[in-house]
Amino acid sequence: MIKKTLIIAIIFFVIALLVGSYFLFFNKSSPEAGNPDSEFPFGGLSGDNPLTNSPEISSTDTSLGEIIIPVTPLMNLSKLPIAGAHISKVSTSTLVRYNIRASGHTYEINLNAGTSSKLTNTTIPRIQESFWLSNGTRTLLRYVNETGDGITTYNAEITKKLLAAPTEVGELTGKFMTENITNLTISPDSKQFFFITESEMGAQGYVTDAVNDTQTQIFSFPVSEWITQWPTQNTITVTTKPSSRIDGYVYSLNTKTREF
Q1: 60 versus 246: which is more confidently predicted?
Q2: pTM of the model
Q3: Which of 56, 97, 119, 243 is the most buried (most CB within 10 A)?
Q4: How far apart (Å, rounded) are the C-alpha atoms in residues 40 and 105?
């Protein structure tokens, strides 16, 4: 009887010790809920506009006698995920244009005035990427097709109806490009773009003029897995995709001579 009582006492002691440890180490009070906008690391556009009301950081380099231009901290310009953005300078204003991923709608933010406006309401769902051309007047929108087995690329221009009011929202008009473009890159002057498609013969690369809509093949290779960049106006770099067993190699492709 005494032995049984001792065992029960030990069991209760162990349970009490475990419960006490749980409350001591794991049941800590959660932080108070703050502003819903706090989930965005750089703030938001709701309420007071952070573009005009954010504190500025400035300093003076006395050793050189120069005044450093005030720098505004980083801040969030869109609460929704975007597919891509373009920054341009118009007169004295810095403009940012971007596409919303879920809808494809286009917005523009004037960083100097701290204002935001909607440019297009053409709905193109599930945008994954957008590449900007022609100083922000044209965009290449890429998304998974309806069957889910390919990539669709839409070459679109921001347009407005004839005699439309200045405040009227425009639309995206354009044409669909070749299906399943595997890689795409924009020229430094944003007037051309280079893309690669795959076939039974391997990979073919084309340069397209965004304004004149002319297309020229400058690249053909049996290997189909490539990563492309356009660092200088007449030079495109193509890189073989590396793996754990095969090294990657970078080749320089001249857009004029079409030679490596």
Answers
A1: 246
A2: 0.68
A3: 97
A4: 21
